Amino acid sequence: MKSALMVWGGWEGHEPKQCVDIFAPYLEEQDFDVRLSHSLDVYLEQDYMESLSLIVPVWTMGTITGEQEQGLLAAVRSGVGIAGWHGGMGDSFRNNTEYQFMVGGQWVAHPGGIIDCVVNIINHQDPITAGLEDFKIHSEQYYMHVDPSNQVLATTTFSGDEYPWIEGCVMPVVWKRHYGQGRVFYTSLGHVAADFDVPEARSIVQRGMLWASR
Q1: Which of 54, 117, 160, 211 has the greatest number of C-beta atoms within 10 Å?
Q2: What is the pTM of this model?
């Protein structure tokens, strides 16, 4: 049986527990033994961390100690997969650049707040996005600083209504990468749990977790 760790906490506005309650049962249906933790101290359990198949961080903002961060990063470098969404992975620890290097990006703005936006699938062969078409979602459109080495699977384009200087900017929404031996999946979708009522958004996270898992 594969093993997954879901660590939730941080800013409550992103509904971390509600999102965990969506995806933990899915992982269990896929024969994962799922452990939930509301503390970053779980990252200090070195032997346990490196025995995992998958880590799913759901923790927006807050702080992480150097020891906790190194426990997480060492596990991923050793081959443990990591998969996450929105601020729960892409805006977790703003002072920790090595963590951001692992993720492949960092949130910096969401112009206009909650708006109607379009997600464009640009890779129709990858198992994470195969069979999916472009779709609309009413949520935050994340503007991010992203790593050019990411393998981008879906994008969104900014209108410039809020900030004219970014009109036409094409921004990655879904990507995958490696950090050491570990597979890394990220999507900026998922501001609140209801965003995953959009079938494409839910499928992308489900598939991304399975892809990242070793």
Answers
A1: 54
A2: 0.97
